[in-house]
Each structure stands twice: as structure tokens, then as C-alpha cells.
Write a structure and sequence with these properties.
The protein contains 9 helices and no strands. By secondary structure, it is mainly α.
Amino acid sequence: LDKEIKINNRWGGFFEPSIYIKFLLPLVKKGFPLLFMGVSATLVMQFDKIILSYYASDATLSAYYLAFTFSTIPILAIAGPIKQYFQPHIVSYLTQNNVLYRKNSIVFFWCLIVFVAVPSALGYSSLYQILSIWLGNNELIDKVDFFSHILLPAFVLGAISYFPSVLLVVAEDYRFQSVFAIITSIIFVFLLFILAISRRFCQFKPTA
């Protein structure tokens, strides 16, 4: 028994079950809703391709994948780093009851608008020309342009939603986020399934 106590003390109580029960289980219970947010994000990011693979042609699926990759640029390359910069500052100031958290929240919001929403809106009417720089004279460019006009606004809206999501994280309102994420993911998958069955994607014909 003395030997076990010495081992536990040496490892900081690592082998003591009460440590897990007292500290880790409440933490797991509190953060469990975040698991559903991760699952819903994975569902949105991957399940669409699984559905389309059953109903769309290889060419259509390839065009959709290219459009998906292009449309995620605003949220992954721009909005993501902006969120990673501001979220720790907002959390830190708020926990310290520092009024600067309001200033940082406002700056965070306007950074999303100026660096994500505005450039995306300005380039929306010229998507074909922008895609031509990337794809050249690829035969799929018309389909990629078609899908990009649908996907880009959705990802820009998702990027702007980083603002309320950060505030909800700061408020530790994980339950609302998880429920909202699950509901919107189910709606997304349902609509995509209906579109795939209707063969709208499969029968798409370029207008250019």
C-alpha cells in the first residue's frame, strides 16, 4: 500500500481513480455536446460527396469536389486564422472582466466582413474568370463554376457565423451549439439527398 501511494505521488496521482471521477468526469460531461458539433461538421464536410457518389457521374463528382475545395478558401484560409487570433483574446479579457473584450468582439466581426464577406461578394460575379486562372481550359470548368456559385455563399455565411459561435463558446453554451449544429446538418443532408435523387446534379448541362 505504501508503495502504491509513493507511485501515485510520484506521478501526480495519475493512477488514482478518484482524480478521474472528481475532475475529468465533470469536464467530459460539460464538453460532451462539443462532440456532436464535431460530428455534424464532419457530416457536412464529407457526407455530401458520399451521397453524390451514388447518384452523380464521375465528372460531376469531380467538378463538385473542385468547387467545394475552391469555396472553402474563405473559411479555411482567411476566417479560420482570424478566429484563432481573436478567440483567445476575447476569452482572456472576458474572464478578467476587462471591457476590451467588447472592442475585440467588434473588431473580430468587422474583420470577418472586410476580409471574407466583401472580397467574396466582389468576386462572385467574376467566378468563372477566377476559376479560369486556376483550372485553365479544363472541360469541367462550367460545372465547377455552377457549383461554386452555390457553395461559396454558404461557406461565406459559415465564416461569418464564427462570430456568434465564439461568443457562445465564451458563454460556455455548448448545448445550444450542438443542437443547432445537428439540426442544420440534418437539413443540409436531407436537401442534398433530395437534389441528388432528382438528378439535378447528374443532368446538369453547361450554359456557357
